[in-house]
Amino acid sequence: xxxxxxxxxxxxxxxxxxxYGQDPELICQRIGLKIEALYNPDILISQxxxxxxxxxxAQRCNDRFFTLKLAxxxxxxxxxxxxxxxxxxKTVGEALEVFAANIELxxxxxxxxxxxxxxxxxxxxxxxxxKLAPREKRPVHTHFEQVIDxxxxxxxxxxxxxxxxxxxxxxxxxxxxxxxxxxxxxLLCGDNxxxxxxxxxxxxxxxxxEHTLANDAIHGRQVIEHELGAGIGYGLPFxxxxxxxxxxxINTDSCTAIEVxxxxxxxxxxxxxxxxxxxxxxxxxxxxxxLDLAQQYIRTSELSIGAIAERLHFKxxxxxxxxxxxxxxxxxxxxxxxxLPS
Length: 342
Description:
Helix content is 50%, strand content 10%. α2 (24-31) packs across α3 (47-60), α4 packs across α7 (145-163) and α11 (238-249) crosses α14. The strands form two sheets. A five-stranded mixed beta sheet has the order 3-4-7-5-6, with helices on both faces. A two-stranded antiparallel sheet has the order 1-2. With 342 residues, it is an alpha+beta fold.
């Protein structure tokens, strides 16, 4: 999976850090990020470094909501051709479908899903834990709250561009525990905020989803798709497409290999064969997703170990503990004490 993104995703970070009286270059040195990435938008940088930078900035500036402010200085135009396709959409829903289908072409560490419900849709965000490349520096920070806040804010500001500056989601769900102060989140999202949830999601009613957009069609859709290198949603590597489907279904009642294959409109044997060709398997991707989500819950939520085990489809606490210790060398409880010392 691609792990590098253009440094335009951190554009504005240096200016914002300076407003807090901090030195952005010292922050870069602290996490091992090239200083020129702060000022040149076309340098390729690690997605892990982006998360590390945001977390370090929030800590040094003593602002839990640092990236909410950063998003105000930016926009989804950082996505380049993906954003241009969104601008060509006829409805809000079509724009969101383009965004969800193609975000991983820009950043493989993020997945966006659209879940259709009776009263509207939810736009869900998943942060995928990326493996370190050989000789790559280990991140200073292990949390992803700033990245999640960043994408949440970018999405809501883009929806306001389409639906009006007074627009707010019907409600927002977050995996993390409730911060001591939530006023900045309420200003962004409205009052209907729910924490310790099983998804990070923005909920949009059906009327807003179907809202027609003014579209001058100034960008050629076929040209933009060619620049992306594929048709909508099909430029993703097959393993990444399976991984994102697993992460979507894992929040439902069941997430078997058969259900993943059905959701991707293929036979189970075809799914297994194509994964094998890519030196992967359903079980490998499923276990990686469960481990990744388990660590996110343990680090950022107040959920009990039993509640996490249930959400991730383990038959009981013992099965979850056995799995976790076999993979990481620690039990979930030991890991929580390690990352959240009292």
